[in-house]
Design a protein that fits this description.
By secondary structure, this protein is of the alpha+beta class. The chain has one domain. The protein is 44% helix and 18% strand. It is built from three helices and three strands, in the order βααββα. It has a three-stranded antiparallel beta sheet. Strand 2 and strand 3 form a beta hairpin. It is globular and about 30 Å long.
């Protein structure tokens, strides 16, 4: 996690190719359950040449506390597994 030093409201990570679909399915479910949330949170998802995906959330405060915890726990567990 890399927070914005002014607001502590940003979250960025790169998910490797093997876990790409898991990460994207999380955001798809969230988008379907609450339309407009991804735009409000300023979520940017970019495919990389190597097959991995870069995810950036510029307004984490748009999510409620429970959703923020789920997102960070899930994405960090994916990232952690790949770094072992």
């Amino acid at each position: 996690m890399r927070p914005n030093t002014n607001f502590h409201n940003q979250y960025e990570l790169t998910v490797e190719k093997a876990d790409r679909e898991k990460a994207l399915s999380l955001f798809k479910k969230m988008s379907e359950s609450r339309p407009g949330l991804m735009q409000e949170a300023e979520v940017k998802i970019k495919d990389r040449v190597d097959g991995s995906v870069y995810i950036s959330i510029n307004n984490v405060a748009a999510f409620d506390e429970k959703t923020t915890l789920v997102i960070k726990t899930y994405l960090n567990s994916i990232k952690y597994k790949k770094n072992c």
